[in-house]
Amino acid sequence: MTQLTLTNAQGRKIILHAAGLSRPAQFGRGREAVCKLIEHLGYIQVDTNYTVERAHHHAIFSRVPNYKLEWLEELQADRRIFEFLTSDSGYQPMHEFRFSLSVKQAFATNRKPLTHAEINLMNKVQDRVAREGPLMVKDFENDRLEASAGWWDWRPSKVALERSYLDGKLMVTRTKDFQRVYDLPKNLIPVDVDTTMPTEDRPPLYAPCL
C-alpha cells in the first residue's frame, strides 16, 4: 500500500471542502443549494433548543448565504429530504432512505421486550394516523395515570408515537413552531425511492439533488 503524505494546506483544503466551507456559497444559492448541501454532508443534525435560532439553521446559513428558514420545510414537503434519528435527529437525503432501515430494525429488536399493553397502544396510534391523517401529540387525549416526574417523562401515547417513529412505522415532519407531526411512510416517501433493506452485496443508488 502506497503511503500518501499531505501538507497542512492540502489537509485543510480537503477538510474544508468536506465540511462545505471551502469557498463562499460552495453549493450556490437558493433552495437547491440547501438540497445539494444536505446531499453533500449526508446529514444535518436538528437542534430543538435555541437562543437566537436553532443550530441547524446556523449550519446551513454559513454555507448557503441567502438561506431562508422555510426552505427546509419546503424540501421536506417536496419529499426530497426526511428526518430521522441515529445518534441524534437530523435531515437526510430522501434517496438514502433505505439506509435508515437497519437503524429502525435495530431499535425494534434491541429494546427491552414490550408489554401487550404497550404494543396495543402502538397499534392504536398507528391506526389513528392511518385513518385520520397526520397527527400531533396534542391530538391524543392525556392518558397519563400519574403526575409528570420531569421534562422527559412522556405520557404513554407520546411514547407509543415515538416508538412507532423509531421503528419506522411512522415518520415525522415539523410545524412552523417546530412541533412533530406523525404520518405514514407511504405518504412521505416517493414511489420511486428504494425501500429495500441494505445488504453488503448491494451498493447504493446515487441520485443527487440537481
Quick take:
This protein is of the alpha+beta class.
Describe the fold and architecture:
By secondary structure, the protein is of the alpha+beta class. It has 2 domains: 11-97, no CATH class; 102-188, no CATH class. It has 8 helices and 5 strands, in the order H-H-E-H-H-E-E-H-H-H-E-E-H. The protein has helices spanning 8-18, 31-41, 55-61, 70-77, 101-110, 116-132, 156-167, 185-188; strands spanning 44-45, 81-85, 89-93, 171-174, 180-183. The strands form 2 sheets. Strands 1-3-2 form a 3-stranded antiparallel sheet. It has a two-stranded antiparallel ribbon with strand order 4-5. A hairpin with a 3-residue loop joins strand 2 (81-85) and strand 3. Helix 6 crosses helix 7. The longest helix has 17 residues, at 116-132. Mean pLDDT is 89; it is low at 204-210.
Mean pLDDT: 89
Biggest sheet descriptor:
3 strands, antiparallel
Parts with pLDDT < 50 across at least 5 consecutive residues: 204-210
Count of alpha and pi helical runs:
8
Assembly level: single chain
Topology at a glance:
Layout: H1 8-18, H2 31-41, E1 44-45, H3 55-61, H4 70-77, E2 81-85, E3 89-93, H5 101-110, H6 116-132, H7 156-167, E4 171-174, E5 180-183, H8 185-188
Antiparallel strand pairs: 1-3, 2-3, 4-5
